[in-house]
Amino acid sequence: MNGVWYAAVGAAFVLGLLFVFAYSRRSTPPGRHGEASSATVAAGSDEVARRSAELEAGTAAAVAEASALRKAAQTEAEGLRRVAEAEAEATRRTVRTETESARGQVEALLARAREQAAGLIAEARRSARAEVDTLTGELQRQLASHAARTARLEETEARLDAQEARLAQRAAELQRRSDELAARKSELDERSAELETARVAVADATREHERELERIAGLSADDAKGELLATVEAGARREAAVLVRAIEGEARAEGTERARSIVVEAVQRVASAQTTETVVSVLHLPAEEMKGRIIGREGRNIRSFEAVTGVNVIIDDTPEAVLLSCFDPVRREVGRLTLEKLILDGRIHPHRIEEAHEQSKIEVEELCLRAARDALADVGIGPIDERLMPTLGRLKYRTSYGQNVLGHLVETAHIAGVMAAELGVEPTLVKRCAFLHDIGKALTHEVEGSHAIIGAELLRKFGEDEAVAHAVEAHHNEVQPKTIEAVLTQASDTCSAARPGARRESLESYVKRLARIEEIAGARPGVEKVFAMQSGREVRVMVQPTEVDDLASSVMAREIAKQIEDELTYPGQIRVTVVRESRSTEIAH
């Protein structure tokens, strides 16, 4: 019984080992199966062999004990022995079967491990071969680079050798030149010694000659040198004065001729027709009875018209015409358009007058804007601030001595552009200064002060360039001109205003100005006659030569011009010429 029990325990133990082995194979992760397969197979084979040996030893012991017990209890255990033998045989067969199965599995595992090992070895060989190829290629590239570098080094060495040869040649050449220079230096030293000896001899001879000259002339060398320098200095001063006078005369003549040609060309190219200055507008009526409708019952319509428009209506004996009078030309134009609308409509009453006046104001504003844009496009100076456009357009209805101000601005801009181009100055800024120089005249009815200062302040207010504002405020010398743009603006304004036919004034003021010019010139002592020529643009003063000399005549001309500038207002400029003439008369008998 004990042998059978031992055999059963051994068989169960072997089955447990086989179960554990199979479970460990199933539980091994696929990723690590290849890594642990060899170790697991080896451990399983050893354990199976050990257990098999123990099982065989236990089986032999069990058989021996069974035999002893059989001899001791043959009668009792005959049947049990047969049963035990049968069970032991079955157990042995089972053990053999399991052992063979385990051995088959072990062999399969070993075969699989060998295959995996072979695959890993092949993969390692491929990796090693690829790495060897890579290293071989890198080595070949390095060898090629080394060969190229070696070639470059050899080429550099060749160049250095050639350069060393050239340097050696140059060193030899320099050495040769140095030897030649040393030889020449020695020659020069010898010549210098000879020259020094000759100089000493000449100095001795010169001193002897000076002593002889001093003895003969009775003057020392310093006194003679002083007299000679004084004589030379006087002659040089006289010649320099003559040369300076000649150069100044040539420069003045050339500058005058050049300026005259520039001004004449500019004026001829841009001269245009001008309007006449007037403070009244004449409106023709379709019929004489229209005057009564304009006046209205008890003068209601005419009073309402004058109150709304600010324009005086003058109704006189002129047939089929009325006069509109106002110092503001824009307001006078609005009044004229208002009265035209009322006459065309036929309905003249206070409410209709107000409606027509509003419509006329809008039309005049549009006309002003259109005129400003047309003038701006004509001069081609680029855009200006839109807030300045209405003010600029109002100059269409302003005149100065019969010259339309907006037309004067366009003409001045063109003259300034021609002058700037002739002088080699960029014309755009100069034309902009000249075009805007009289913009302040549009506000002189509203703001006190000079139109130049008003215009400059207006331009600065709306962000115009400071160079333009300075040229505007300086074009009447109220501010000293500091830029070339200001000077050209002033010159072009004078050209546009002073050219023949540009402006006119009333006969009364013209006669008064001529009389005052002759009075100013005739009040000087020594004046014999005064002539106002060229419509008052030139004054010739004849003086008595015994009372007025040349210097006094120059002073008199300057004083007369200064007094005319201070007292009179006139367009353009006035030339004052003082003529001093001496006559000697003898009679031959």
Task: Give a description of the structure.
Residues 25-38 and 273-277 have low confidence and may be disordered. This protein has helices at 2-27, 30-72, 74-217, 221-270, 290-295, 300-309, 329-345, 350-379, 389-393, 405-423, 427-435, 451-461, 466-473, 484-498, 507-522, 550-567, and strands spanning 280-284, 312-314, 321-325, 399-400, 403-404, 527-533, 538-543, 575-580. The radius of gyration is 65 Å and the shape is flat. The protein has 589 residues and is mainly alpha-helical. Helix 7 packs across helix 8 and helix 10 (405-423) packs antiparallel against helix 11 (427-435). The chain contains 16 helices and 8 strands. The strands form 3 sheets. A 3-stranded antiparallel sheet has the order 1-3-2. Strands 6-7-8 form a 3-stranded mixed sheet, covered by helices on one side. Strands 4-5 form a two-stranded antiparallel sheet.
Could you write a compact summary of the structure shown?
With 589 residues, the protein is mostly helical. Helix content is 72%, strand content 6%. The chain contains 16 helices and eight strands.
